[in-house]
Amino acid sequence: MPLMKQSTVPTDDQLILPLCSIFRRFLKKQGLKFTPERAMILDAVLEKEGVFEAEELLYEMREAKHRVSKATIYRTLKHLLEANIITEVLIDSKQAHYELSFGRKPKGHLVCPETQQVIEFPADELNEWRDRVCAERGWDPVSFRFVVYGVSPEARSAQSGEAEDGDA
Amino acid sequence: MPLMKQSTVPTDDQLILPLCSIFRRFLKKQGLKFTPERAMILDAVLEKEGVFEAEELLYEMREAKHRVSKATIYRTLKHLLEANIITEVLIDSKQAHYELSFGRKPKGHLVCPETQQVIEFPADELNEWRDRVCAERGWDPVSFRFVVYGVSPEARSAQSGEAEDGDA
DNA sequence: CTTGCTGCAAAAGTTTTGCACACGT
DNA sequence: ACGTGTGCAAAACTTTTGCAGCAAG
Fold it and tell me: Between residues 62 and 91 of chain A, which touch chain B (CB distance below 8 Å)?
């Protein structure tokens, strides 16, 4: 495989350095600083596959003996959002869920409330919807979220045991 | 167009009675009771146009001299969700937003984070997406949420005053 | 009557903030 | 050096829950 700049969707490893500098540049532009804590948090975010939560990051960084406070995690997530490196995924209203989004095509999420499963699926075609909906009203499109709720096979089998519904 | 039972979307007034009995029937089926508080909350929900929050209901019912506690509102909203009379609209992760959904076609939501505006738009065609996404993975489709984020014209003009971005 | 319901206030869970000190730039 | 950042713990907020008395079926 010959050398290529970064054309197709890069793997995680290929992503780490570019994202690091992108974040750095973003921070500098805002007059903010690139601290070890922020670097560590970005690293932790890059490790994650799919959706994650703030508390999850905190826990994993503690495991890895990295001392970062909850407050710093929340503060940094905010910057990562502004830098468009991560995105909020709206799964439930109780808690924020995030996902690495930099350089990736838009994704939808298939969620099973019973089992808490979250499956990602490609949803780039919905950009057309996004643009049309905005255009029709004179808005500038920014992004979209598409979440499908369903019953996963796992939930369905788990459900078998519980008689409940019976229609009127 | 010959006579039809209740084909088109009914107006709010037409909705009140049916929904009341539907809620009643739902409660009975679950062995729950139809109390004045629950009736009042359902009424308040029917008054709302578009998206609303729990705290909003509480406030408005206080205004109307209806004594209902916060706890009861939350508890009732939960039942209304189960009865499929209202739906959670996922706009941000901080707070739950609800919307009357009974007998209505699926809607999408256009949100401007700057101005807090929320505009509803028809999105029934996305049911096909929902079904396809589920079918491809052996899930049973339940529902979906489609939220588009954008900058509203109002936000754009408000923004004019603030110089900030300038690219690197 | 029996069982569930309400209100209150306290609890729980997530996210934010004030402050004193420490550290990138 | 200056201006931000960090950790900690307390605060802020939304939502849930335990309990004693009350009301629907």
Answer: 88, 90-91
* Residue pLDDT, tens place only, B123-132: 999 999 999 9
Which residues of B are less than 8 Å from A128 in CB distance? none
Q: Which nucleotide is nearest to B28 (CA to C1')?
A: D25
3-state secondary structure of B42: helix
Contact A121 B133 (CB under 8 A): yes
pTM for the model: 0.85
Calculate how close chain B gets to A37, using CA atoms only, in Å. 24
* Secondary structure string (H, E, C) spanning chain A: CCCCCCCCCCCHHHHHHHHHHHHHHHHHHCCCCCCHHHHHHHHHHHHCCCCECHHHHHHHHHHCCCCCCHHHHHHHHHHHHHCCCEEEECCCCCCCEEEECCCCCCEEEEEECCCCEEEEEECCCHHHHHHHHHHCCCCEEEEEEEEEEEECHHHHHHHCCCCCCCCC
Please tell me if residue B26 touches chain A, with a CB cutoff of 8 Å: no
The hierarchical CATH code for the domain B105-168 is 3.30.1490.190
pLDDT tens, residue by residue, B78-137: 999 999 999 999 998 889 999 999 989 999 999 998 888 999 999 999 999 999 999 999
Instruction: Split chain A (168 residues) into runs of 10 and give each run's mean pLDDT.
Output: 41 69 94 96 93 95 92 97 94 93 93 90 96 97 94 85 40
Report the nucleotide nearest the CA of residue B34, measured to C1': D24
Topology of A1-104 in CATH? Answer: Arc Repressor Mutant, subunit A (1.10.10)
* CATH 1.10.10.10 boundaries in chain B: 1-104
Residues of chain B with CATH 3.30.1490.190: 105-168
